Every structure is written in C-alpha cells, then in structure tokens.
Amino acid sequence: MKPLDRTRGVVEMAHGGGGRAMARLIESIFLTSFANPLLNQRNDQACFAVEKGRLAMTTDSYVIQPLFFPGGDIGALSVHGTVNDLAMAGAVPLHLSAGFILEEGLPLADLARLVDSMGQAARAAGVAIVTGDTKVVEKGKGDGVFITTTGIGIIPDGVAPSGERARPGDAILLSGTLGDHGVAVMSRRENLSFETAILSDCASLHGLVAAMVAVAPDLHVLRDPTRGGLAATLNEIAQQSGVGMELVETAIPVKAQVRAACELLGLDPLNVANEGKLVAIVAPKDAERVLAAMQAHPLGRDAARIGTVIEDADRFVVLKTGFGGTRMVDWLAGEQLPRIC
Amino acid sequence: MKPLDRTRGVVEMAHGGGGRAMARLIESIFLTSFANPLLNQRNDQACFAVEKGRLAMTTDSYVIQPLFFPGGDIGALSVHGTVNDLAMAGAVPLHLSAGFILEEGLPLADLARLVDSMGQAARAAGVAIVTGDTKVVEKGKGDGVFITTTGIGIIPDGVAPSGERARPGDAILLSGTLGDHGVAVMSRRENLSFETAILSDCASLHGLVAAMVAVAPDLHVLRDPTRGGLAATLNEIAQQSGVGMELVETAIPVKAQVRAACELLGLDPLNVANEGKLVAIVAPKDAERVLAAMQAHPLGRDAARIGTVIEDADRFVVLKTGFGGTRMVDWLAGEQLPRIC
Lengths: 341, 341
Prior knowledge:
Two copies of one chain form a homodimer.
Chain A: H1 20-34, H2 37-40, E1 46-50, E2 53-62, E3 68-69, E4 72-73, H3 74-87, E5 92-103, H4 108-125, E6 128-137, E7 145-155, E8 171-174, H5 180-189, H6 206-215, E9 221-223, H7 229-241, E10 244-248, H8 256-265, E11 279-282, H9 284-295, E12 304-310, E13 317-320, E14 326-328
Parallel strand pairs in A: 5-6, 10-13
Antiparallel strand pairs in A: 2-7, 3-4, 5-7, 8-11, 8-12, 9-11, 10-12, 13-14
Helix pairs in contact in A: 1-4, 3-4, 3-6, 6-9
C-alpha cells in the first residue's frame, strides 16, 4: 500500500473503509494533531473518571462553506461552536468527540490543515478531542468535509442558566459587536473585499463565562447568537420564558465596516450569525457587575447593555430605533445566509 | 409561513436556517419521535446529574446507502451502532446526542420515518436522545441524510475491557453469525433477491454485555466487528495487544444463505460488516461461563468459541481451514463495501 501523500494526495473511498488505509489516515493526520492519552488508546470509545455533579452535553454539525474563511476555518469553528454551547450552560468544557464525513477527492493538505487548526483550538480551550470517527462518501455526495462535534462539560454548583429563566426587569447584555462572522464568510463567498478586512469573531467563550460567573453565579440565561443571529436568539428566549423584550438600537454594537457590508449585501446585522459572542440575561441587581466583568475580559471588551426584559403576553421582541420609533425584531422564517456554520 | 407537509413535503434550505422553519421541523418531526424531558427543554445543550464514577464517550457518523435496508434503516442503525460502542467498553448507555445533515429535497416522509425508527430504537435500548442539531445542505452536496450520534454511558466498577488487554491463552468468543448486515445492504443495493430474505442483524448489544459481565466482570476485550468485519477487528486487537490469534474456520458461524450470497458477490464473510455482533476475548478460566451466558441471551444464541490468542511477535491472525491448512486472515487495505454504516 502506498504511503499517505499529505502534500498532493486526496481522500479516497478506501480511507473510510475501516481497513489499513483508514488506520494510516488516522495516524498520519488525526492522531498527530489531536494527540492526547485517551485518543491515543485507539479504542472505539474514551473512558474517564468523573466526580459526582452536573454535566452538560451538546452537539453541532458544521457544514460551513467555504471551509477556510477570513479569521477561521471549519476545524476551529467546530471546536469553538461546541465549546460555546457548553459554556452557555455555564459548564467548564471537559471533552469533545469529532465525527468527520469526508468527500472523496478532498485534498489531504486541506484536511491536514483544518484538522491541525481544530487541534490548536482545542488545546487553547483546554479540552481534548478524546474519540472520533471518519467516513468517506463518493465525490458529489458530500461537500469537502462535514464535522460533527459533541462536547461534555461540568457545571459548577449554583450555576443554572436556561432559556426559560428570563424575567421582566432583567437586563439583556451582549458581549460585543454583531455580524462579524456572517459578513466575513459572505464576503469570502461573494469575493467581496472591503477597505478593512472583516474577520470572523469565532472564539471559545468559556473563559468569558467563567469571569461572569465569578461575579454573579446566578446568570438567568446565556446563549450565543449563531445561526439566525441575535433576532432569532432573543425571540427563542422570549418564547421559552413567556416574556417580551425591549432593545435600544443605539446600544447594540456593530462595527462600521460590518454595517456598511450589511447594507451592501442587503442584510440586517440582527439576523447575521456570530461565532464568538454571547447574550446574557441577568437580574437587575447583577447587571452592572456582570457587564464590568465582561468588559474586563478580552472577548467582552465591547460588551454593552442592549435592552430589558418586559412583560408581554405576545412575547414580542421590539427595538427602539435611533429615530425614536419602535420596530418589531422579527424572527426570519429561514436564513439569509445558508451554511454559515 | 406554510405548515409542514409531512406527507408530500421535502427538506428545504430554510429548514436549516435557525429560523421559524427550522423550529417547526424540529417540533413536528424530532420532538414528537424523541420526546423526553431533557430534549423538551429546547436549550442548545442537555444538563443532568451524574454520580462519581467512570464514563465512556463514543461517536459515529452514519452515511449508509440505501437509507432503508432489509432489517433496518439509518435511523435505527445510528442508535444501535453508538449504543454498541458504549457497550464494548462495558458501559451502561445513558444518553445520546444526534446531529443531522439533511440534503435539500429529502422527502419529509422519509425523514419522519427514519427519525421515528431512531426514537423507537432508543426507547428499546433505554437511552434518551437528549440534544441534537440539524443542518441542511444544497441538493447535490449531501446524500439524503447523514446522522452523527454520540453516546455517553456509565462503566460499572471492575469492568475495563480494552483493545490492548488480549493475552496469550485467552479465548476468542463471537456472539453469532457473520456478514448478515453487509449482505443485507449489498443485496438491496444490487437489487438481488435470495430465496430466504437476508436481514441486517442491527441490534443494541448492551443487554448481552450486561449478561456476560454478570458472570465474569473482567472481560479482557470487547469489540463489535463493523466496518472491515471480523478480520479488521481481530487484526486491530492483535496490533494493540502485541499478540497473535489462531481461529478455527469451522467454528465461525455463518448462515448458509449469507455464505451463498458472499460467494455470488465475491465477498469473504470475515471482511463483511456486522451491526449486532460482538467479539469477546476472555481469560481461559472465564471462557465457558461467558459463552454459556451469551448463548442464553436472545442476541447470543449462536455464540461460539472461534479461536485462541497466541504469542506472536508478528501479530498475525491465522485461520485453520476446514481442509487442515492454515491461511492468513488479512486486513484489507480499504473496504469491499463502501458506505455500509
């Protein structure tokens, strides 16, 4: 059997066959980038001890196109996105699993690059990719690579954010600028270039959450506004909690070049996906303290209080515009930007 | 927005957009089939209490074609396969997550059918699908549906099967007939029909494992011979443990019609995938007891002792043939049957 050519080789059907070609691919690409004692055991599962407590478990499939975009790639995103879903439960991320669906013909150099980026993101986030799976589908039956990561994490005592816990009077905090990820991907897809490069914000937010929990453990709701953007996220929470929300448009941070790109592309930043931002809904007494903790963290430098939870049987999310008017923040039926994560 | 037509509708890009169309798909199809308290909370993660102990975590992506095959479908398979990888650690399955990558145009009736089958398999196995994710890719960028499931389970004290624990003298036990799954799928794919229908053996094996652990907790190795078949599984274990293996051909159970189909298709049953069988490697003193426990369980009725672990620096797996000769059981480079799981 010929050795794996990481420079000019491509994914072949045999790499998904459970035989020696697959074993070689796993050794040469996955084990080198992800190396950790649990994965290195090469069993079909990872086994580890846990203390009595509460766990969070979450999964996401990543199908973003293009695979490489300004500020990140599908590999890094598949770590950050799942770490963030753990962090939104207030959990400290522990382990990740990764399932790869590769399309025949994918250059091995691309695979090696995105897997390496995935390994770096995991190490930076302090999590290990402890178990995984690789499948290959025929050319034209996939799209380069799809990655599904699942994470488990440990929730500290006294921490229990959940979508149904927003209460009238609570403050709505946002950790930073909206729309960076969606616009970065879209500009790459449309081959647009702007005066200043717009980079995806993709980042793991568990450190920011830890800083927030340290000053106010009882955060009511935490959620990252990914697909569907802030609009979808707040409408979902309003539904789950049976409340309304009132946002102040001028308080919502959006970078000037992102706002300009959105105008050009016909997008509303409120509907655009983010991959390194969070919304926190907190009791009024905690609002100032949590906001200060966010602003003191590198990933929350632009954090702002953007609105307030109100009583509303209709569960509407409304925006007080810069012009003194009010408009509904609607939840789109579909998505302006397919395959953004 | 038009209501979801479960009879004549198809998956649309909007169903993956994170908006209202996706929420409706999830409510109408996933929540109805998977209903359980953790999933019903509709957060981006499931949170639950665990006791101090050891956990197993495993993941698999399922890309099988066709989606529906004699004896099962991709939905049921995605539960059985992952439950089995937990069971092979001796773990009692606890929770599953599920990530769906849907191709635009997939009939909703097919999706509903396979999701329902998945829910049934999970309930039968006593596990809940507690969190999930849905993505949609354009027509021609996927293949109907890909499912990635991740499972976590609890490993009882004193149970620690692992691929590197095979020792010379250990008995090699197989829980039943080889090749049923691969031949069932292949016959459907090739539109072959046989006198007797050949059905996939796909089944959850944690109950069988529990019966084995009850009589001999210290099983050395447990593994399910899926992709690559028994040949790949035993070669992997031989590598991990640094041992050889000697199998007795006449002791390996294969159904007559599966053997005939393999001859027709040019396949060796030792290389064909199984989805409801396990290999156990146990200390000589435990062999009889474990074999009896297997044969007393409905999923181990045809269990047999098929060989013995031997010392061999070359880590070869050899087969004593019915004619008194010996042949190497080779590990194929790729796979005879792509997309079998």
